[in-house]
Design a protein that fits this description.
- This protein is an alpha/beta fold.
- It has 8 helices and 11 strands.
- The chain starts with a helix and ends in a 7-residue tail after the last helix.
Amino acid sequence: FGLDFFLFNFVSQLKSLFLSIFSHSENAPDRTVFTMAYTADPAQSLTMAWYHKLISEAFGRLGITLEYGVYPPLRATTLLTTGKIDVEGLRAAGYEDDNPNAVIVRESILTTKYGMATINPEIQLDRLSDLEGKSYRVEYLRGVEPLGDMLNDVVSEGYLFAITSPEQGLHKLLAGRSDVFIDFPGRISALIESLDLSLAGIHVNEFEDDIVVYPVLHRRHADLAQPLQQVLSEMKAQGLFEQYMEETRKVFLLPPDQ
């Protein structure tokens, strides 16, 4: 069994996964179809691939088929606010405070962390609160909430800036136009690799603060919040969260401890 067989087998597994968890068409005519917005592509992210498999099963048990699109965070917020989508993938508690059309489904899906990128090795931050009293020029991705509110509480006035893309955040660091870029560390690291910036001297650090994230419904579907919460709770009790993660790791060819 040579390299050709390995590649054929790998491609076949990927195709099977995408057909099973990323289906965008061939929905049964009697099933309701919801559109979901993600800010990271399930086809390129282990965590989002796992999440989409999980949330598709949950909605499926309620007779709903999910379709999805991938958008920048602010665009996803705008689409939910204007009712052009039905669901947002993952948002932290407090997101609904600034978005009255958002209804949080109060069953936690996963716990994540924010992180930082910098080219200055002397900047050492373990928590968001460590920014308090510092004169660092801090940037974050517009639409990633409640991160903006959390940073407003700790960053000195005049030193916090919202940007429109993570690429912009890295390029401004390298140009010396900012000191710290705050985002999800996994997204930062993946972007550094995709932009071939591994040797550019960008340091990435994960904060200790835990951020619990939840699915979000548009308010017109508020009556589904409790049933969806119950389904997710049942799936968690059935061990499906762990089972689906194991299945997704196998497709991405990752060992259980990564």
